[in-house]
Amino acid sequence: MDFNAHKTSILRLFCQERVVGIAFLVSEQYALTCAHVVAEALLISPTTQSCPDGEIKVDFPLLNSTNKFSARVVCWHPQSDLDSEEAREDIAVLKLEQLPDSAQSTRLLLSESISNNPFKVFGCPKGVSFGVWATGVLSEQNAKQWIQLQDTRVTGYAIEPGFSGSPVWNEELQGVVGMVVAAEYTRKTAKVAFMIPVQILVKAWGNLEMLA
User: Fold this and answer.
1) Which among 59, 116, 154, 185 is least buried, having the fewest CB atoms inside 10 angstroms?
2) Nearest C-alpha neighbor of 211 from the set 63, 36, 77, 24
């Protein structure tokens, strides 16, 4: 899969008219995002244990279309308590009843040899609802088995709130290796974020294994 095809898999999630995060297609009907993004869209707590049943409005910002579509949660792993080392948290699977003809599911990679590979990720930080791209290099995993994303540039956008749920595109391997889940923005000198690798996403939703 080339990068232009990958871009058609990217969705924005809305709370009324406000963009709250990103998701990405992994099959014709299903998309992945973070539970805390869904929670913000539905105005519920991200630690809600039961699977939410509200309707979420989404669109495909890189298809040059203003049409919105409906999605519902079919798999739910809420946020855990602060400092939890549970890897399978903050994950949601959405089912779309309809989507644009030109939208494609992205390519998922289970490769574990990704350290120091360059990545690219799309997000909608506050005040930039049309979206921007952030780049950097993949680092190592932490105790949660999440992988650190390192911003290596002096200029450009860093990953921040608004990027959550976005697919992490590995530029060397030409595929998605994880999903943005958190960013470090309390330490001003730290230019890092974290992704949930595809290996953990597969464990969270078994149907994903046949797609990776």
Assistant:
1) 154
2) 24
How many domains are there within the chain?
Answer: 2
Contact 9, 25 (CB under 8 A): yes
| 101 and 11 inside one domain | yes
In sequence order, which ranges of 107-150 are alpha helices (DSSP H)?
Answer: none
Query: For the whole prediction, is pTM greater than 0.90?
Result: yes
* Nearest residue to 164 via CA among 180, 152, 175: 180
pLDDT value for 192: 86
**Measured in whole angstroms, how far is the alpha carbon of residue 163 from the centre of its chain?**
7
Distance separating alpha carbons of residues 67 and 23, to the nearest angstrom: 16
In-domain check, residue 210: no
Residue 11 is part of which domain span?
3-105
Kindly state whether residues 100 and 129 are assigned to the same domain: no
Domain at 139, CATH number: 2.40.10.10
Residue pLDDT, tens place only, 72-113: 999 999 998 766 666 678 999 999 989 998 999 999 999 878
Domain boundary among 73, 105, 137: 105
pLDDT digits (tens, 9 = 90+) for 157-193: 888 899 999 999 999 999 999 999 998 766 565 678 9
Q: Which amino acid is at 131?
A: G
Cα separation, 122 vs 6, in Å, equals 11
Average pLDDT, the chain: 91
Return left, alpha or beta for 13; rule: phi > 0 is left, psi -120 to 50 is alpha, else beta: beta
Q: Which of 105, 130, 161 is the last residue of a domain?
A: 105
